[in-house]
Amino acid sequence: MKFYCYILFSETINKYYVGYTADILEERIRKHNSNHKGFTGKVGDWKLMSVESFETKNEALTREKQIKNKKSRKFIEWLIAGAEHLRSCKI
Length: 91
Prior knowledge:
Distance between the termini: 27 Å
Number of helices: 3
Number of domains: 1
Largest sheet: 3 strands, antiparallel
Strand order of the largest sheet: 2-1-3
Shape: globular
Number of strands: 3
Structural class: alpha+beta
CATH architecture: 3-Layer(aba) Sandwich
Strand content: 25-35%
């Protein structure tokens, strides 16, 4: 089983959301975009901006906490820019 730390973005509220999951990532994003109680349930336009996979829940949770502890939008945008750069590299 894989575990994921991910970053979502909502244009409606111009905010990022950092989370982790052991679920199928696509299903987790669908849940964020559903009308549920909680921060992400208020809007339905969350888009996946970055994802990292891990072998253990503890690793994914630790990464989520590292990102959240920075309390920095610039840091999150830097992570996303790095992820986009890696996707565009041809090896």
